[in-house]
Amino acid sequence: MAWDFSTEPEFQQKLDWMTAFVREEIRPLETLELTWPQLLTAIAPLQQQVKAQQLWAAHLDPELGGQGYGQVKLGLMHEILGSSPLGPIVFGCQAPDSGNAEILAAVGTDEQKRRWLDPLLAGEKYSAFALTEPDNAGADPTNLQTTAVRDGDDWVLDGDKWFISNASTADFVIVVAVTDPDAERHRRASQFIVPIDAPGLEVVRDIASMENPSPRENTYGSHCEVTLRDVRVGADALLGNSGDGFLIAQKRLGPGRIHHCMRWIGQANRAFDMMCERATYRFAHGSVLGEKQTVRNWIADSAAEMQALRLMTLQAAWVIDTQGTKAARKEIAMIKYFGAKILHDVIDRAVQTHGSLGYSSDLPLDFMYRAARAARLYDGPDEVHRDTVAKLILRGYEAPTDRIPTEHVPTRRRAAQERYAALFDEILASV
């Protein structure tokens, strides 16, 4: 087993370019309240620069227009992009489009790729992924109620979805629906490509949330309520085989969580920079904040926790690259809940360091803080991931056959006395 913490000089140059590009070209756009059409116009020339640097849609294989980077390199990239909510879309690797592109690339037919994947990769179309439902726990998607019923050569979809990210700006939606309610629980559902203008599909509203209490219609980053009423699609809308819905979904979840965590590190680092800067000049009770033990503790703890999360996440990415997603299941689940906590804690300390300024909207910390709360829910709540980690760890242990703890000292002492009896006899004889 080889461990290598180095980055090739050529790739490091790309990371350095990305760092400056995000800071100088992308972050300024955050301060403008752009509509979706305005945002697309503003980022178009930036996307061309990214393509010129051969960094566009880097998560995909070269034959699909990507770079074929493994998860470690993608993780390092997402750490930089995550410092801005607009970073991923400028680089063509934003959720949910990146995951949808991976699905289409993996199981899409040639015609599905031509109609949906190619324009998605080119930045000409955008998409949404409709899984979550208002009346079912997102942590257990096997309880889905949205149905897809066969009618001749067509499928007819009915159901309610919500918190469907970017549905109000999407050109098509990948909908997860039950096709065989009597099948084994992980074989009940399938996935369908549904155009956003399909009759019977309605984007009801942009849902107000902690992250965005007063959402504006038709803006990037929305979370929407979507209804499907007798939505008819052809047989060519089915992704993969009937009953493969959950199997297909797994293709996007593992790597997606790596990208989530690395983006969280980028956000936490941005909050950390604001906290440290504040500590150098804010004067209170006789000295600047950077001379206060509590603030120094916050800085030290934040630095250590971010470093721990970074190494854990890159190690999980390394396992995926070398052994596959399934082998990294424990590592992925661990960084998911640990990363959500670190993101929240670092931003919270930065807010506290800034006082009323941090609480105001004059800094991005208020939005970052509200958005960070959702990290404990994305891709499954923390509690589910903790449970997964514990179950996987416990598989490596067995109850002692005699019900006596392995480290029970009296039992170990008796065993040691028996094992070394001859040695003790020699020692006693030599005295």
TrEMBL record:
GO biological process entries: fatty acid beta-oxidation using acyl-CoA dehydrogenase
Keyword Zinc assigned: no
Cofactor: FAD
GO molecular function: acyl-CoA dehydrogenase activity; flavin adenine dinucleotide binding
KW Oxidoreductase (keyword) present: yes
Domain Acyl-CoA dehydrogenase/oxidase C-terminal: 243-393
Residue span, Acyl-CoA dehydrogenase/oxidase N-terminal domain: 12-124
Keywords from the named record: FAD, Flavoprotein, Oxidoreductase
GO cellular component terms attached to this protein's record: cytoplasm
Catalytic activity, reaction form: a 2,3-saturated acyl-CoA + A = a 2,3-dehydroacyl-CoA + AH2
InterPro entries per UniProt: Acyl-CoA_dehydrogenase (IPR050741), Acyl-CoA_Oxase/DH_mid-dom (IPR006091), Acyl-CoA_Oxase/DH_mid-dom_sf (IPR046373), AcylCo_DH-like_C (IPR036250), AcylCo_DH/oxidase_C (IPR009075), AcylCoA_DH/ox_N (IPR013786), AcylCoA_DH/ox_N_sf (IPR037069), AcylCoA_DH/oxidase_NM_dom_sf (IPR009100)
Domain Acyl-CoA oxidase/dehydrogenase middle span(s) in chain numbering: 128-207
Record note on quaternary structure: Homodimer.
Entry-linked PANTHER family: ACYL-COA DEHYDROGENASE FAMILY MEMBER 11, MEDIUM-CHAIN SPECIFIC ACYL-COA DEHYDROGENASE, MITOCHONDRIAL-RELATED
Family: Belongs to the acyl-CoA dehydrogenase family.
Name of this protein: Acyl-CoA dehydrogenase domain-containing protein
Organism, as annotated: Rhodococcus ruber BKS 20-38
